[in-house]
Structures are given as structure tokens and as C-alpha cells.
Write a structure and sequence with these properties.
alpha/beta, Aldehyde Dehydrogenase, Chain A, domain 1, Aldehyde Dehydrogenase, Chain A, domain 2, 2 domains, 7-stranded mixed beta sheet, 15 helices, 22 strands
């Protein structure tokens, strides 16, 4: 772990093995942090907060820009480690590190652009009185990230927290702690004062529970499953901590009869099977207009059949393993439920053989699935996609909204009226028109309904790392 500027072990001395999902080999070990370790990190962050909050925005930006340079120098090393502990292809790991670096640079540049407000008070008893709205850092923050994008989703917490003058303790998932720890170590080499950025590794039930419940923590940012997010909200709410939650998703993609079918099919394949489908914002339901349904499905099927399944470190691998066998079994059960309800397999539908672990699953397309099937109503965190025929945009939007989730969505059309209806009517935090998410930092990202609360990315993310404070100047007495 990295606490108060130093690389440390857990108080207990216990360690956790980290295994490659593709081979089962031990990649490394990490400290099995406890509640006491979490308290050490929180105390270090609390002690560092006041001096760090008093630094200028330009000073904070310099540290972040320097940190970006250090990560860039270790880009290939980090990507290989990330591929081995998470399972994703090295090419995708490289992209993830790039997104992390871009986020650091974005918030470094934004740090000095923060503005307050001037408010005239004409009805105040004293002539010339006015108000100011200041934006002050909150204090000790906690960022908890999942195993599917452990670096990118750690960066979405670190960047705005430090740019805003806060200190932070991050905790990665227990199965993917190695790359995140190395990245935090690199960031500390930028000259960050001790205690400003800390990382604790260990189980959520011990180290994680202390991080969300400790009264010294004023802000919690979490990315992960909805069930865990609900628990965090309940615990953090007892002390009225500021909380943002980016949770599960079941993103719909609508393909209209006037869409560029080649482009849409390519992006449907990428959007569903990137990272082996283990993404909250992956396409998880596909609605295709009847007039182009057969043509589109044929194009998509051809692309899916060409996806190479393999170990992440092997050349040309496009589908790596699922991160753990429980995840593979869950996806398989969701597909089997669809088949039991009358669905038909067009591609895949079973565990991929010939590998050292059971974590591999074939990229799967399913049709003729009823809308109450598990593969539709639950979040499918793996490479399986149900496809539906729809007659028009109204039916597509209605079905898109028939979910407890509301994270991302997309529509593929040349018709401005259809695009506008999707943008206005689909219940989601984001709607992409003829595109998919590519890892930008410029726009806010988050969900509605059970996909969470609050936003990450964009200047808006900084709002969640400041407390607005009103100051009234009453004039000279």
C-alpha cells in the first residue's frame, strides 16, 4: 500500500494473491488491508489536508502534470501488468492507461479555471452590500474503484479531488490492486506532499467499510455494482457525507432504418464485446428497425464470428477471459434462461474451451428473447447480447426505458427528428448519436434510476469536490 508518502505493508502482515484470469498464474501479491490500515491512511490524508488546500491551483496543476509525465514513461510496463491482473488484451490496457493520463491532464488544466460568483444585494440594509459564493475543498475524500477498469476509474476520482485541493484515499478491487498501487506510487514521485494521495488494498468488508464509515471522511466516490452502491449510500449517509455512485447499466442501442449499417454493426460489436463485455456502459440491448433487421444482423454476425478469443498478452486477441469464474457462470446462466424462454442462439452461447482457466466465454448473440428474461432485465456483465425487432422509434424508446437502469444509450440514424426524440425521451445519463463512449473527460458522465447519482468527468465533476460557501460583505460600518 502507499500511505503518508511511503510504501507500507498491512498492520497484520497478511497478503492477497493476485492471479491472471487467463492462466491462473500468480501475478503478484498485495497487502490484505484492515480497518486499522484504512484509519492510518485516513489520518494521513486528514493531516495533509489543510496545507494542501492552501496551495495555489497552479501548484496543484504542476504536480498533476508531472504525474502525467511519470505515468507516460511507464505506459508499457503498466499496460502489461494491467492485462495480466485484469485479463483484458494489452491493446485495451494501453488505451486505459491513456485515458487515465488524459484525465490527469484535463483536471490539471482545469484546476486554475475554478470561479466563484458575485451577487449584488440591493435589499440589504447597508448600501453597497454584496455576496460572494466561494468554492472550498471538502476535505478527506475516498475513491473506490472496481476490477473492470481499475485505472481509468481510479483516475476519475484522483484527478478532480486533487485539483480541487482535497486529499484522498483510494481503494481498488481486491483482485486488481497491483497496477493501481504502482500508479499511486508514481503519482507520489511527482513531489506530492506526504498524505495527499494514499492507497489501501484489501477486502471491502474490512478496509472498505472503514473508509466509508469513518467520520473524518467527508466525500465518497464509488464505481461498481448497484447492490454495493446502495450499501455505501446507507452507511455514508449516517454522517451526511457527499456521495457519488456510478453503478450498473443496461444500455440500449437503437438502429434505425436509415442508419449506416456497416458503421453501426462495427460499433455494436465493439460496444458489446470490448473488455469481454465487462463494462457498465457496454451495449446490452440492441433494438433494430424491422426494415433493416435481417441485413444488420447478418453484418453484425459476420463481425462477431471474426473476434479472436485468447489470452490478453497474445497478439490479435480481441476477447480475453472474464475476470473470474463466478462472472462466467452468471453470464452462462443468463443466456440459458433466455434459451429456456424461447430465445435462439446466433453465435456463441457456451464456455470457450482450450484454455488453462474456465473464465473464457464465446461472444454470444441471442434473438427471439422475451423482454422479461434475465438477459434483458439484469445487467449482463459479459459477452452476450440480445437483439430485438422494433417497428418504429416510439417502440424502440419505450423498450429502451423498460429497465431499472439508465446509464448510457445510443441511436444510429441520419434523421434529426429520430435523434432528437432519443436524446429527449430515453431515460439515461448519456445518449450518443451515431457514436459510442470513447473515454473522454470533457462531458459529465453518470446515470439515472438505479445506475447511480452524481457525475464524473467534465468540469461538473469538480462540483462534487467543493463545498459552496456564501460570504456577505455588508460594507463599512
Amino acid at each position: 500500500m502507499f500511505i503518508n508518502g511511503e510504501s507500507v505493508d498491512s498492520v497484520s502482515g497478511e497478503r492477497m494473491e493476485v492471479r491472471d484470469p487467463a492462466t491462473g498464474e500468480v501475478v503478484g501479491t498485495a497487502p490484505k488491508g484492515t480497518a486499522e490500515d484504512a484509519r492510518r491512511a485516513i489520518d494521513a490524508a486528514e493531516a495533509a489536508f489543510e496545507p494542501w488546500s492552501e496551495t495555489t491551483a497552479d501548484e496543484r496543476a504542476k504536480f498533476l502534470f508531472k504525474a502525467e509525465e511519470l505515468v507516460h514513461a511507464a505506459h508499457s510496463e503498466l499496460a502489461l501488468l494491467l492485462s495480466r491482473e485484469q485479463g483484458k488484451p494489452v491493446s485495451e490496457a494501453m488505451t486505459e492507461i491513456e485515458h487515465f493520463m488524459h484525465g490527469l491532464g484535463f483536471y490539471a488544466a482545469l484546476a486554475s479555471k475554478v470561479r466563484g460568483d458575485y451577487v449584488p444585494l440591493p435589499n440589504f440594509p447597508n448600501k453597497g452590500a454584496y455576496g460572494m459564493v466561494l468554492r472550498r475543498p471538502i476535505g478527506v475524500c475516498v475513491g473506490i474503484s472496481p476490477w473492470n477498469f481499475p485505472i481509468t476509474l481510479t483516475g476519475t476520482k484522483i484527478g478532480p479531488a486533487l485539483a480541487g485541493g482535497n486529499t484522498i484515499v483510494v481503494k481498488p478491487a481486491s483482485s486488481t490492486p497491483l497496477t493501481a498501487t504502482r500508479v499511486v506510487e508514481l503519482l507520489n514521485q511527482s513531489g506530492l506532499p506526504k498524505g495527499v494521495l494514499n492507497i489501501v488494498t484489501g477486502p471491502g468488508g474490512t478496509a472498505g467499510e472503514e473508509l466509508i464509515s469513518n467520520p473524518k471522511v467527508r466525500r465518497v466516490a464509488f464505481t461498481g455494482e448497484t447492490k454495493t452502491g446502495r450499501h455505501i449510500m446507507e452507511v455514508a449517509g449516517r454522517d451526511f457525507k457527499r456521495v457519488t455512485l456510478e453503478l450498473g447499466g443496461s444500455d440500449p442501442m437503437i438502429v434505425c432504418d436509415d442508419a449506416d449499417l456497416d458503421r453501426a454493426a462495427t460499433m455494436a460489436s465493439v460496444g458489446r464485446f470490448y473488455n469481454c463485455g465487462q463494462a457498465c456502459l457496454a451495449i446490452k440491448r440492441l433494438y433494430v428497425f424491422e426494415a433493416v433487421y435481417d441485413q444488420f444482423v447478418e453484418k453484425l454476425l459476420g463481425k462477431v464470428k471474426r473476434l479472436k478469443i485468447g489470452v490478453g498478452t497474445e497478439k490479435d486477441t480481441r476477447i480475453g477471459p472474464l475476470h473470474n469464474d463466478a462472472q462466467r457462470r452468471e453470464v452462462q446462466e443468463q443466456v440459458e434462461d433466455a434459451l429456456a424462454r424461447g430465445g435462439k442462439i446466433l453465435a456463441g452461447g457456451k464456455q470457450a474451451s482450450g484454455f488453462k482457466t474456465t473464465h473464457f466465454y464465446e461472444p454470444t448473440l441471442v434473438v427471439d428473447v422475451p423482454h422479461d428474461a434475465r438477459i434483458v432485465q439484469e445487467e449482463v456483465f459479459g459477452p452476450a447480447l440480445p437483439i430485438f425487432r422494433v417497428k418504429d422509434i416510439d417502440e424502440a424508446v419505450r423498450l429502451a426505458n423498460s429497465s431499472i437502469y439508465g446509464l448510457g444509450s445510443s441511436i444510429w440514424t441520419r434523421d434529426l427528428a429520430k435523434a432528437n426524440k432519443a436524446a429527449m425521451k430515453i431515460q439515461a445519463g448519456v445518449t450518443w448519436i451515431n457514436s459510442l463512449h470513447y473515454g473522454y473527460d470533457e462531458l459529465p458522465f453518470g446515470g439515472v434510476k438505479q445506475s447511480g447519482i452524481g457525475r464524473e468527468h467534465g468540469p461538473e465533476a469538480l462540483d462534487y469536490y467543493f463545498e459552496p460557501k456564501s460570504v456577505v460583505y455588508a460594507g463599512l460600518m
